[in-house]
């Protein structure tokens, strides 16, 4: 104790010790990572050392840690109490208002003054991921089945639209249910072998499944045109009326139909509303099914499978419906992706996509619909906003994810609304009379 | 009502049940006692078809349910409050009860809810609380209530007194008696707490190493010196 006083208060000594320790760790890491650099030399590869850079990095860690300790001393973190019911209720009310407000904003967006082509394109991208996030949320957030191969169903949807539209001339609206049904079928195909798996093991198998689909798309050249992809996919039309700057004299186009001047942005706005509607449908469906026996069974399964069995829930059907329905929405989103891009190739359906969609669900708070929207805006819109950072973009992106997880380890909005209260007795009684989990 | 004959159950090569014979008649409370690892939980799980028995027979009423899938067994009128309660932690009390009613006719839901709230008034108070935040005793009550929501004719309880204070144990056992007498539900109960269980039960079985070694009325078993030595000494 007396020794400590020589250097100042005990907390400071402790802090210096802590900072030194961390600086040591930084040193050990920095020597190989920063300190050594390979360079081309006449005789082959040579090593160059960069000790000043190492020193800077270690110093940064030391000073940073020390500042953190001092800051903690000056502003001690308040002990974390559970949210009081009042605060919790206030947060809930805020989130409940946030939903409708966001929807209203989304509906008006194309007509706001700053909504140029670029903003709309980014918004369409964000909405696509919101829809994918909501779809995956059914599997991961509600049913608790960790799926790392979700992009496979997105790919199935995209390719089925591209192939049916190109080969049979079917319209987008005719292809949509086909794509959904095909993706759902693949969901069940994946579901069967993994019925007995949970957690890490399930994640590995689904990861493999996602890769399998991609490899099949690459190698089945006669159907998918292999790595070159499919181009010239029909663009969407306005319920049969094309967006065409110069239609044939006897044919109509979107702008002649409404008697307005042609502008290429009309198609973009249509695409925007298309994905908005598809995404909102996904959301409505999820909100509704959570209150039905199937949806509740998903959540119960996530909590405790053995308890579910002992209550007479059939886990097989329950899991398969979750896989199938989650996959179906990915299929819809895939069709949209194909018609929007006009070109698809296996490149677009790599594991990174699955990882991003999963990150959206996890950051959003596993099961929170609004949380997923926020997470999608942050993770998809964010990198667009910080485009100027160029090569540091991914660094900023990673840092942001770490920060969110430190700040809110259970996701942005982690609380869960009960699906029933005593007041809605009558309504539930009616809802329960609908059939229990069945495979579609 | 429940008749078990020569039941063998394996976990891989481990033989957990080695030919169990046992019977539970309609309206009874029957207790099954035995040391840790005797196979009590295994017996209850095998009745529910999970795992299925390797040999032997489980008859419920007139049906041979030995090979039935679990959800059909539950639908036939057997409910289980499994070992360790297994409450759905993130779901509310009300939702837990709703899950219990999965295999019941929905038109009875409201009256069943009133019924279990009368048995366990605390659950009504806590209906919107998350299951995982209930106390151990409340969770046990919820587990029993949840099992009752499927309107079973036979209720299987696996160690309902596990980890509970003596007062709460008494309360739980009183409710079990009420369920049996007033609601006419047959109860088959596994317990470590042999004293309470045998006092409550009409009849009892003793399971040792996967075999029934003794049976009799609750009072007979309580008076038996071997049982006193093995399961009752040093406490109660
Ligand atoms: N899933 C399993 N896999 C392998 N062995 C198991 C499994 N479950 C139980 N066993 C074994 O079967 C035997 C009986 O277990 P069981 O759980 O039925 O005992 P119990 O009588 O309920 O004990 P307790 O009073 O401790 O709950 C034990 O030897 C146990 O190790
Ligand atoms: Mg046991």
UniProtKB/TrEMBL annotation, chain A:
Entry keywords, A to Z: Cell membrane, Membrane, Transmembrane, Transmembrane helix
Gene Ontology annotations for the cellular component aspect, listed alphabetically: plasma membrane
Gene name of the encoded protein: livM
Protein's organism: Candidatus Defluviicoccus seviourii
GO MF term list: branched-chain amino acid transmembrane transporter activity
InterPro entries: ABC_transp_permease, LivHM_N, LivM-like
Transmembrane segments: 20-39, 51-74, 94-115, 122-142, 148-166, 173-195, 201-220, 270-289, 320-339, 351-380, 392-408
Residue ranges of domain High-affinity branched-chain amino acid transport system permease LivHM N-terminal in the record: 16-108
Annotated signal peptide: none
UniProt subcellular location: Cell membrane
Classification via Pfam families: BPD_transp_2, DUF3382
Protein name: Leucine/isoleucine/valine transporter subunit membrane component of ABC superfamily
UniProtKB/TrEMBL annotation, chain B:
Keywords, in A-Z order: Amino-acid transport, ATP-binding, Nucleotide-binding, Transport
Domain of life of the source: Bacteria
GO term, biological process aspect, one: L-amino acid transport
The keyword Transport is annotated on this UniProt entry: yes
GO MF term set: ATP binding; ATP hydrolysis activity; branched-chain amino acid transmembrane transporter activity
Ranges for domain ABC transporter: 2-234
PROSITE patterns from the UniProt entry: ABC_TRANSPORTER_1, ABC_TRANSPORTER_2
UniProt-listed PANTHER family: HIGH-AFFINITY BRANCHED-CHAIN AMINO ACID TRANSPORT ATP-BINDING PROTEIN LIVF
Family: Belongs to the ABC transporter superfamily.
Protein name: Leucine/isoleucine/valine transporter subunit ATP-binding component of ABC superfamily
Organism expressing this protein natively: Candidatus Defluviicoccus seviourii
């Amino acid at each position: 104790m007396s020794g400590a006083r020589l250097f100042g208060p005990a907390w400071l000594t402790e802090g210096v010790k802590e900072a030194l320790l961390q600086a040591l760790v930084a040193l050990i890491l920095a020597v190989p990572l920063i300190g050594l650099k390979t360079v081309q030399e006449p005789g082959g590869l040579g090593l160059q050392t960069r000790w000043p850079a190492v020193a800077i990095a270690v110093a940064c860690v030391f000073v940073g840690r020390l500042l953190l300790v001092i800051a903690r001393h000056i502003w001690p973190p308040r002990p974390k109490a559970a949210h009081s019911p009042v605060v919790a209720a206030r947060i809930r009310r805020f989130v409940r208002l946030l939903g409708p407000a966001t929807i209203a904003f989304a509906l008006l967006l194309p007509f706001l003054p700053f909504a140029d082509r670029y903003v709309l394109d980014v918004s369409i991208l964000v909405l696509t991921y919101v829809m994918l996030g909501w779809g995956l949320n059914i599997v991961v957030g509600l049913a608790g089945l960790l799926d790392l191969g979700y992009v496979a169903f997105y790919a199935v949807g995209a390719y089925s639209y591209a192939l049916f539209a190109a080969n049979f001339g079917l319209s987008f609206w005719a292809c949509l249910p086909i794509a959904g049904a095909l993706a759902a079928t693949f969901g069940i195909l994946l579901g069967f072998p993994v019925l007995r798996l949970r957690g890490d093991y399930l994640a590995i198998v689904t990861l493999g499944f996602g890769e399998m689909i991609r490899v099949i798309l690459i190698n089945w050249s006669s159907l998918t045109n292999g790595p070159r992809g499919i181009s010239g996919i029909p663009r969407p039309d306005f319920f049969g009326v094309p967006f065409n700057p110069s239609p044939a004299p006897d044919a109509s186009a979107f702008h002649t139909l409404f008697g307005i001047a042609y502008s290429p942005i009309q198609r973009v706005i249509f695409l925007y509303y298309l994905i908005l509607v598809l995404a909102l449908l996904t959301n409505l469906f999820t909100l509704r099914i959570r209150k039905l026996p199937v949806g509740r069974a998903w959540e119960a399964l996530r909590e405790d499978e053995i308890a579910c069995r002992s209550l007479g829930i059939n886990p097989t059907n329950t899991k398969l419906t979750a896989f199938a329905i989650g996959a179906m929405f990915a299929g819809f989103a895939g069709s949209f992706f194909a018609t929007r891009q006009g070109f698809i190739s296996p490149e677009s359906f790599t594991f990174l996509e699955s990882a991003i969609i999963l990150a959206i669900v996890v950051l959003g708070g596993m099961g929170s619909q609004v949380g997923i929207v926020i997470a999608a805006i942050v993770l998809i819109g964010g990198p667009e906003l910080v485009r100027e950072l160029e090569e540091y973009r991914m660094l900023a992106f990673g840092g942001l994810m770490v920060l969110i997880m430190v700040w809110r380890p259970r996701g942005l909005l982690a609380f869960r609304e009960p699906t029933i209260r005593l007041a809605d007795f009558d309504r539930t009684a009616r809802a329960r009379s609908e059939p229990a989990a069945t495979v579609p | 009502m429940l008749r078990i004959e020569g039941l063998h159950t394996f976990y891989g090569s481990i033989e957990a049940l080695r030919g169990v014979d046992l019977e539970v008649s309609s309206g009874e409370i029957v207790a099954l006692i035995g040391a840790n690892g005797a196979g009590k939980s295994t017996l209850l799980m095998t009745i529910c078809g999970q795992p299925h028995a390797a040999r032997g027979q489980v008859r419920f009423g007139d049906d041979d349910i030995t090979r039935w899938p679990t959800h059909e067994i539950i639908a036939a009128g057997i409910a289980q409050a499994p070992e360790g309660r297994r409450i759905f932690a993130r779901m509310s009390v009300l939702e837990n009860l709703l899950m219990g009613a999965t295999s019941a006719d929905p038109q009875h839901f409201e009256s069943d809810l009133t019924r279990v709230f009368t048995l366990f008034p605390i659950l009504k108070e806590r209906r919107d609380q998350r299951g995982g935040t209930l106390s151990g005793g409340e969770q046990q009550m919820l587990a029993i209530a949840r099992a009752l929501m499927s309107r079973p004719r036979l209720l299987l309880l696996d160690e309902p007194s596990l980890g509970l204070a003596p007062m709460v144990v008494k309360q739980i056992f009183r409710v079990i008696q009420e369920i049996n007498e007033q609601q006419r539900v047959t109860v088959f109960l596994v317990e470590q707490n042999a004293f309470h269980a045998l006092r409550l039960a009409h009849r009892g079985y003793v399971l040792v190493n996967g075999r029934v070694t003794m049976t009799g009325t609750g009072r007979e078993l309580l008076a038996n010196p071997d049982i006193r030595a093995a399961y009752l000494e040093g406490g109660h």
